[in-house]
Design a protein that fits this description.
With about 400 residues, the protein is of the alpha+beta class. The chain is about 30% helix and about 20% strand. It contains 11 helices and 12 strands. A 6-stranded antiparallel beta sheet has the order 1-2-3-4-6-5. The chain has a 4-stranded antiparallel beta sheet with strand order 9-10-11-12, with helices on one face. Helix 4 packs antiparallel against helix 6. The chain is elongated, with a radius of gyration of 25 Å.
Length: about 400
């Protein structure tokens, strides 16, 4: 390795502390992330004039003396470089540094760092974003799992899912792919990863790509609850005991939307009952949102008191509906305003209270969904999460009438 003291003219003020053997990649001293055996630094690709991420993995003495290490590293990184998918982070090159006793890998740089870092700094992540991110992760997993033989990540978690951008432009990519295998061989460890995200069968000799689906379920759980799974456990040994006994994290009980909870439970189910990535992509929760370029279906003949709507692309159509339990009555009035807009009036009356809560809000057929709006009402109007499924069901049922062809949340 070549240690550098001088600054480089690459648009950065950081000191360059290391170069790749061919001189193409420069490493800064800025740490982007750390793990038990690895450190992630910011680097720079002089050939393409872009920032990169530079992994350094500590090597066990026994592994360093192993003649198979170079061959194994070359095999893994050749595989990684061959992968081409929008939701898989791109790897460039790797090498073993015998002097400093580490393995180095170069991959694409993501400025917003990891999904966990992003969600921690954006405490209130809306369901619509979680759906979009979840689908991107599943697209990447489906690509990997569709290979022959399937490529298994084995250490999927929010800490190694990378994001870039902000708002609706956030892009999600799976990273650290192959590192579980590399670290395993470089550190002479037989079991690696994060116990909180590892499927029980991963501790056995036989497992398949569905271990990644279990991990994906834990990622969804963390995003929705903003809580690390098995937070209640004292240490990793305690986590291991809970996982192998099939005991789910307590944070699962904090998921108050039954449909979302069932989806996560299906990811965490025994392997024989677990969804595949392809099946999850077809789940209503992850269905692709309608394109803004797609026309909203015409409103035709609702059979309402307003009269026939036949042959009219849009009109001031009004529907009313309600749903009751022993505790609450929810009434909803929806009015079709134009091709893309609906106006909703929501009334919530509690059995033991003489005062009803009333809310008026617009609904954009091209940009909104019932679950997103209901979550916003819960957060901003102090409604109870346990009533959210009723609001979503009522709203989606009315949307199916006011906009034929509407895709409900579930």
């Amino acid at each position: 390795m070549v240690l550098m003291k001088q600054q480089q003219e690459c648009g950065e003020d950081d000191a360059i502390v290391e170069k790749s053997p061919d001189g193409r990649f420069l490493r800064y001293d800025e740490v982007l992330g750390t793990g038990a055996f690895k450190v992630l630094y910011k680097g720079f690709d002089q050939e393409n004039r872009v920032e990169v991420s530079w992994y350094q993995i500590s090597i066990d003495d026994a592994a360093l003396d192993s003649p198979e290490l170079e061959e194994s590293l070359s095999s893994v990184t050749d595989l990684l470089k061959s992968l081409k998918h929008d939701n898989i982070i791109k790897y460039n090159c790797s090498w073993v540094d015998n002097v400093n006793r580490n393995i180095n890998l170069i991959m694409d740089f993501f400025s917003s760092r990891t999904l966990r870092h992003y969600s921690k700094n954006h405490k209130y992540v809306d369901i619509k974003s979680i759906k979009r991110w979840g689908r991107q992760i599943l697209e990447g997993l489906n690509y990997l799992h569709s290979k022959n033989p399937p490529i298994i990540h084995r250490d999927l978690r929010c800490d190694n899912i990378f994001v870039n951008g902000s708002g609706n432009l956030v892009e999600v990519k799976i990273g650290d792919l192959g590192l579980a295998t590399i670290i395993n061989e470089a550190t002479a460890k037989s079991v690696l990863g994060s116990p909180e995200f590892m499927a029980p069968e991963l501790y056995d000799d036989e497992h398949n790509e569905l271990v990644d689906i279990y991990s994906f379920g834990m990622c969804m759980l963390e995003l929705i609850t903003s809580e690390y799974p098995y937070k209640e456990c004292k240490n990793q040994a305690h986590v291991f005991k809970e996982v192998t006994a099939g005991i789910k994290p307590l944070s699962l009980e904090k998921v108050k939307v039954p449909e979302i909870k069932k989806l996560i439970e299906k990811c965490l189910a025994p392997v024989s009952q677990r969804f595949s990535a392809a099946e999850l992509l077809n789940h209503p929760f992850f269905l692709v949102e309608k394109s803004k370029d797609s026309p909203v279906p015409q409103v035709l003949n609702f059979g309402l008191s307003n009269g026939s709507m036949e042959n009219l692309p849009c009109a001031a159509v009004t529907l009313e509906s309600s749903m009751s339990t022993e505790e609450i009555k929810i009434s909803l009035k929806g009015k079709r305003i134009d091709v893309k807009s609906i106006s909703f009036d929501l009334r919530i009356a509690y059995t033991r209270s003489p005062v009803a809560n009333k809310f008026e809000f617009p609904f954009d057929l091209e940009a909104d969904d019932a679950l997103q709006i209901a979550v916003e009402l819960v957060r901003e109007k102090n409604l109870s999460f346990r009533h959210l499924p009723l609001v979503v069901e009522l709203m989606d049922a009315m949307l199916l009438e006011l906009a034929p062809g509407w895709n409900p949340c579930y």
